[in-house]
Amino acid sequence: MIGIEDIFNLFPGGDDNENNTTYVDITSTPIYWLGMHKKLILNHINFKKKVISFFKKNNDELDIADIEKAGEFVAYNRAWSYIKKINMENEDHVADIVSYGDDALNCSLELAIKHFQNTEEYEKCAHILKVLKKSQEFTL
């Protein structure tokens, strides 16, 4: 049970609290990793459309297919760098998947699976599929 002194110690004021600042690094949390994966994949789709449109209009010498492949490689591998940190054996990670899971996350995970299937990186697909299945269990 929280005591009255503990509640008031949460607020700044007085000399006792000057050196009690606590910072939480959210970049080392499963919620952050899931969010970054979703953000990178879904933003990549919109960005790709704009970049291709720009280069088609402004430069006929560039190979649009190469630009597309390079952009996909960077986006999906960067997104992988986040989602690979999810440990399906860790109850806290699973709880974060359950609380953060939504249609947008599921879509980003499905797109990542398709990408890594095309590049024949099946170990990545297997890990992402575990996360997707857990997310889908609790998504309405």
Question: In brief, what are we looking at here?
Answer:
With 140 residues, this protein is mostly helical. The protein contains six helices and no strands.
Descriptive overview:
- With 140 residues, the chain is mostly helical.
- It has one domain.
- It has 6 helices and no strands.
- It has helices at residues 4-8, 30-58, 64-83, 91-100, 103-118, 122-138.
- Helix 2 (30-58) packs antiparallel against helix 3 (64-83).
Largest sheet: none
Averaged pLDDT: 86
Provide the β-strand percentage band: under 5%
Tell me the count of domains: 1
Helix segment tally: 6
Cα(first) to Cα(last) distance is 35 Å
Helix content: 55-70%
Number of strands: 0
- The best one-word shape is extended
Give the class from helix and strand content and strand pairing.
Answer: mainly alpha
> Over all CA atoms, what is the radius of gyration?
21 Å
User: Regions with pLDDT < 50 over 5+ consecutive residues?
Assistant: none
Order of helices and strands: HHHHHH
